[in-house]
């Protein structure tokens, strides 16, 4: 009987000698060791130990995996920005040979907006004159106690809408000119940095 108990104990200890050990910390901060990983092993993380107690493999906790994923995503974002900047730099140095060429390109881009503004201003003066005339006619009709025709009201509405559209066109082109000026100014600074000119 004693022999069989001893044999079983030896077999169990021999099996345990080959088994891996796991170390983990529970929610209360207590350290545990076991030959089987806990249910929460994937969530809380832990270490797989050799017979000598050395760490063979470490499993990250959920928080560590999330932090690692965020770190990798940030690295990818930075790399993508660097790649984009490298493409822009190549395009800049391949498009222009001097800052004077950048100034010429800027002036051409600005001229488009200047022409649009000038056209809207000229048309705006005619529309404002028409609006003033329509309002005067309507005021005279109302003063005489007569009804204003639907056609005249429609003309006034149409002229008012066109006046607003023209003002919006002028404003949009003025804003675009500021953006264009800023873009080409930044291009000149970067060109200078890249070429040392």
From TrEMBL:
Residues 64-91, 117-144 form a coiled coil. Pfam families: DUF4124. InterPro entries: DUF4124. Keywords: Coiled coil, Signal. Residues 1-19 form the signal peptide. Residues 9-61 form the DUF4124 domain. This is DUF4124 domain-containing protein.
